[in-house]
Write a structure and sequence with these properties.
183 residues, 13 strands, 3-stranded antiparallel beta sheet, 4 helices
Length: 183
């Protein structure tokens, strides 16, 4: 099942392991690797904590996506956060990223396809950006379960150029759907 429900509002990269990423006019997604020129590019993990525990792990965090609606929510709560500042590569609008099942495929622009692998696990570096930001991107549901709102992660199945204004089509996996877990 394919749905067309969203748009890319910003794309960002950083060649070094800085927390925030810089907005770009476009980015190139590379099949099986991630975002060209980004510090997290590669088949195996690049996040420092994961490299320290096992550098041979597959990189399930090649692309980080955040919904612009989170930025809106944070602005209402008094935070000044813009696209790329929380480390995301792609900022979207109009898609419930957190509600997607694992293995959903996001068709970005004309050619690129990203498969959703799971939730981003927010870290204390968010508080370095603004005090209290880490708590602001965590919540609880009615049963008291932790909700991670800091975006989703994915792997690149098909490469291509991605830029602000590109449409996003969602291809859902076969049922039964698997809920997103942190990766």
């Amino acid at each position: 099942m394919t749905l067309c429900t969203g748009i890319i509002t910003a794309v960002s990269t950083s060649e070094t392991h800085t927390f925030g990423k810089f907005n770009r006019e476009s980015i190139m997604l590379l099949t099986g690797l991630g975002v060209e020129g980004d510090a997290h590019l590669g088949k195996t993990v690049k996040h420092r904590s994961r490299v320290a525990s096992d550098p041979s792990q597959p990189n399930l965090r090649q692309v980080h996506l955040i919904h612009a609606e989170l930025h809106d929510e944070l602005h209402v709560a008094g935070f000044a956060v813009s696209a790329g500042q929380m480390g995301e590569n792609i900022t979207t609008r109009g898609i419930d990223l957190l509600g997607l099942p694992t293995h959903s495929r996001l068709h970005l622009g004309d050619k690129a396809v990203v498969e959703v692998t799971g939730l981003r696990n927010p870290c204390n570096q968010l508080n370095g950006l603004q005090a209290g930001l880490m708590s602001a991107v965590l919540g609880r549901d009615e049963q008291g379960n932790l909700i991670r709102k800091a975006g989703i992660m994915g792997i690149v199945l098909a490469g291509g150029e991605v830029k602000p204004g590109d449409l996003i089509r969602i291809e859902l996996p076969q049922e039964p759907f698997q809920p997103l877990e942190r990766v």
